[in-house]
């Protein structure tokens, strides 16, 4: 029931975000040959991925709107809290549904991009590059997802929390844009800035599992803080 409830609450926002992500990436792929760039190669796909990062971030922020504070403002939190489950369970289901939807927002545009771009006789390489880009997007993006979750436990109002999240995301992007901090930037990780090879447009080097795990650990900490705050709130 909780899974279905979380889906009903987010399905409209998910569908809107999915259309935006797939539509934007598809339009960019189609427009590349028109601009005189020739056939779409890995350089073009990487550039479109950078645009996807921005729209994906916006979509995930919208997905994590709501929560118990928002339900309290709407007068429906008493029903949710009366269910025979813990607050941790409520938060975990909400986060997992958001995570699954965020995976869809990352994978679906790349499927559309590969179909529209073709593979220039190198399907395996293109699929590998797509998988690496999705890994980077989800690894760094996990921090943004749980940060929005955390803000939804601190700020009441369905639209106030995502607005604050976007403001903080912009501030973090600016703060971590310097050369000294770019290695810790989830945004640089999501775009693959450190792994991009300008000669052939591919992501090079070993699969960055360790940095991805660091970002996932940070996301887990943000989730734990969110659960602690919700447990201590008096509804």
Gist?
This protein has 235 residues and is mainly α.
Layout of strands and helices, then pairs:
Elements: H1 2-37, H2 42-63, H3 68-74, H4 77-82, H5 87-117, H6 123-154, H7 160-175, H8 186-191, H9 209-232
Helix pairs in contact: 1-2, 1-5, 2-5, 2-6, 5-6, 5-9, 6-7, 6-9
Tell me about this structure.
This protein has helices spanning about 1-35, 40-65, 70-75, 75-80, 85-115, 125-155, 160-175, 185-190, 210-230. The chain has about 240 residues and is an all-alpha fold. It has one domain (about 1-230). The longest helix is centred in the first third of the chain and has 36 residues, at about 1-35. The radius of gyration is 19 Å and the shape is globular. It starts with a helix and ends with a helix. The mean pLDDT is about 85.
- Domain count: the total is 1
Number of strands: 0
The biggest sheet amounts to: none
The rounded Rg comes to 19 Å
Encode the helix/strand succession as letters: HHHHHHHHH
Strand percentage, roughly? under 5%
Residues in helix, %: over 70%
Mean pLDDT figure: 87
Shape: globular
Termini gap: 21 Å
Provide the structure class: mainly alpha
What is the helix tally? Answer: 9
Q: Catalogue the unreliable spans.
A: none
Feature tags:
235 residues, 9 helices
């Amino acid at each position: 029931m909780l899974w279905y409830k979380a889906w009903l609450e987010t399905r409209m926002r998910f569908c809107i975000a999915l259309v935006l992500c797939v539509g934007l990436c598809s339009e960019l792929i189609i427009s590349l040959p028109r601009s005189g760039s020739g056939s779409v190669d890995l350089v073009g796909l990487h550039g479109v991925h950078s645009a996807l990062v921005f729209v994906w971030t916006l979509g995930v922020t919208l997905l994590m709107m709501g929560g118990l504070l928002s339900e309290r403002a709407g007068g429906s939190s008493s029903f949710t809290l009366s269910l025979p489950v813990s607050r941790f369970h409520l938060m975990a289901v909400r986060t997992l549904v958001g995570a699954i939807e965020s995976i869809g927002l990352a994978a679906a545009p790349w499927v559309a991009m590969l179909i529209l771009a073709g593979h220039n006789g190198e399907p395996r390489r293109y699929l590998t590059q797509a998988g690496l880009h999705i890994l980077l997007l989800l690894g760094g993006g996990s921090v943004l997802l749980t940060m929005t979750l955390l803000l939804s436990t601190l700020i009441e109002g369905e639209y106030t929390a995502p607005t604050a999240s976007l403001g903080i995301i912009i501030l973090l992007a600016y703060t971590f844009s310097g050369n000294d901090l770019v290695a810790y930037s989830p945004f640089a990780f999501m775009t693959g800035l450190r792994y991009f090879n300008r000669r052939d447009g591919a992501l090079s080097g070993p699969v960055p599992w360790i940095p991805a795990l660091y970002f996932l650990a940070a996301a887990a900490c943000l989730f734990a803080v969110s659960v602690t705050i919700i447990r201590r709130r008096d509804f």
